[in-house]
Amino acid sequence: MHTTMDIKDIIKPENKVYSKTPVLLDNVMHYCPGCSHGTAHKLVAEVIEEMGIQENTIGVSPVGCSVFAYNYVDIDWQQAAHGRAPALATATKRLYPDKYVFTYQGDGDLASIGTAEIMHACNRGENIVVIFINNAIYGMTGGQMAPTTLMGMKTATSPYGRREDLHGKPLRITDLISQLEGTCYVTRQSVQNAAGARKTKRAIRKGFENSAKKKGTSFIEIVSSCNSGWKMSPVKANEWMVENMFPSYPLGDLKDI
Hints:
Blueprint: H1 4-10, H2 37-51, E1 57-61, E2 76-79, H3 85-95, E3 100-106, H4 107-113, H5 115-124, E4 129-134, H6 164-167, H7 173-178, E5 183-190, H8 194-212, E6 217-223, H9 227-230, H10 234-248, E7 252-256
Parallel strand pairs: 1-2, 1-3, 3-4, 4-6, 5-6
Antiparallel strand pairs: 5-7
Helix pairs in contact: 2-8, 4-5
């Protein structure tokens, strides 16, 4: 049994292994077990704290699971209409050029109804950061097929699997965005394990640093799981993501200027 002195020794500052960033609020996250959003929120919050930019950061989140980011990350937030986050972020950054402005969007938002906004914002080279959560499905609204849904993948609106002749092929929007002259940094990462989370955190920080240097748009895709929409356990969903999502959406930098 520990004595009082033992406990005091254990909790000395030099023995501290980890402490939660104060940029992340104490609210209990509502996301499904195994969801990638919680980890992504944590990484964004840690980068903001480490860069000392909490008072100068504005997040823009639209409709879908991503909209709840305001409830967990303690910065100024704006909510955009479905797909319109890049347009709102553009206005915000131009009005407040010294602020760090980023969007936080899912694939059903960014790669579908918001395709025009994201393409034109990136083509203009707006000095914003885009964090794109791609789980290849509409998570919040019932598990419908998204533009990023894989071939053969079953969803609520493709119960027999996605077919090329009926639905077309998946939209690899990050590949398209990497070809736009306004983007300075385009990368695809993941958060399914510690190594992936570390790489994603470095990518997010690079995006914010690029914004400060006025280099253009930084676009960070995070290949994610949706075990509820995929109807799998969290462990199985992670395994399925590695086996099926990663070959279609390979991780790594697509562009780094």
